[in-house]
Amino acid sequence: MLTEKEPSRSRKARSAGQILGTNDKLDAIYERILAAVMEHRLIPGTKLVEEKLASVFHVNRTRIREVLSRLAYEGVVTTIPNRGAFVASPSVEEARHIFQARRIMEPALIRSLVDKGTDEDFQKLHAHVAEERDARERGDKRAVIRLSGEFHLLIAEMVASPPLIKLMRELSSLTCLIILLYDSPNVPACPNHEHTDIIAAMEEGNIEKAIALMIGHLDHIEATLDLSLPEDTEVDLEAIFG
Ligand SMILES: [Zn+2]
């Protein structure tokens, strides 16, 4: 029964795509807006005017709305009722609060992992850092930012209770967004060697060194961000995408 169902499901999916005829186009628009945000051609707080985007990309406003709601779901765009969609803009204060929370939380996670970590845990961390290195060598900046965040989450998942893991997940995705929005282009999110040094100190059982390295690492990420971007800047959407 299952093998008979599979083809009909995919036929249905294909025909839906054909009827809309726009899935590839929507993906392309999504990628171009996201790239513009990541490359700082669209900065936090920029208003994304539906009708202008519709005209630039030669689609109707409904399609633009679909793309914007996908970006909003991912936290890259904020929608304000009666005002429209804007590139998400965590304030400088919010960004600093997130790093402050991480500096309090992550040393405790390091301490637990030095106490309880198994060889298997450390192997997993090394494998993760190898993945980060691959993404960096491919020049896949978005994967680098995601994997950098996941390194910290992986540590939490090894030692923390569910509420702390949930908190770490939120802090980690907010940090990714802040890096997406405030990072200088071409500055790495988490330098690879810093993750490797933290693992090495934990493997040596040197808690104080591992904690000092982790705090230094978080300070370093915060310091590489440009948390002083101007707000409410007028931009010419046609010049950016036209
Ligand atoms: Zn890191």
UniProtKB/TrEMBL annotation:
- List keywords of the entry alphabetically: DNA-binding, Transcription, Transcription regulation
In which domain of life is the source organism classified?
Answer: Bacteria
Q: Answer yes or no on keyword Coiled coil.
A: no
Q: Which residues cross the membrane?
A: none
Q: Where does the HTH gntR-type domain lie?
A: 23-90
- Give the molecular function GO annotations: DNA binding; DNA-binding transcription factor activity
What is the protein named? GntR family transcriptional regulator
Q: Taxonomy-wise, where does this protein's organism fall, top ranks first?
A: Bacteria, Pseudomonadati, Pseudomonadota, Gammaproteobacteria, Pseudomonadales
